[in-house]
Design brief:
The chain is mostly helical. 74% of the residues lie in helices and 0% in strands. The longest helix is centred in the N-terminal third of the chain and has 31 residues.
Amino acid sequence: MSAKTAQLSFKAIGLLLLTILCFDVMSILVRILSTSYNAQELSAYRNVFGIIPSLALLIWTGELRFKASSFKVENPKLAIGRGVVVAVAQLFFYSALAQLELATVATLGQTNAFFVVILSVLYLGEKVGIWRIVALFIGFAGVVWILRPGSDAFSLVAILPVGAAACYAFAMVSVRKFSDDTSNALLYLYSSIGSIIGAIILATFTAEFSGVHSWADAGLILLMSTIGGIGVLLMMIAFRIASPSVLAPFWYFGILTAGLFGWLLFGEAPLDKLFPGVLLIVGAGVLIIWREHKRA
């Protein structure tokens, strides 16, 4: 690994950790708002207002010129399609947050790392060694242990974070299909448009809008949307400058932060549900990180 590659990897890891923090704050706000709004409403609001970060970045970089040529992007269908997939992921994710503990959603959402590595091979043609394959099996065993399919503890709701993880993984990996010259802000703008379209369609056919109940709720919705949008933007930049299979293990830090926030803010401590499966999931991530360190 060259010094430049290592520097870019560390930068991407830092951006990913900030992404996790943004998603944690967004999750907390979704949990609070879920007492008054359904997941479809929150997803629609999130995507409509979540376009603000992309517009702000376009203005800051001077790319917002209101000319047709300024908004051209390679493979626009994929750019918008990524957003539609993210809208589906948000619906799954928000529905899970309304019914499960933060730590449980975060833990099951770590299947994201498995899907990222798998899609990196199938979609990007990356090579994955035996250590990553072993880590994937260990992590998958941890997820099965938590879900306990076939037992009384099994819940269909628990599958929602796994479905969200698969959708988010595609959104992460697919950004590598765009050239380095493609603007991050412009790419995110296309994704935001796709997310808005997808979220509104899903909400229209699956739920009814109740309207914003108060100015306080409006402020929380705007904050939730903006922070979520910033998180997605940081995540996209991170996965454009570093290999998805390198970044994927660092998503495991989200288990710790979500567990801490869930305990401090909501008094949640689902230890009996998560252990020992969470140890296998985290252990799989540590195995990949160790292997990457040895290779470097």
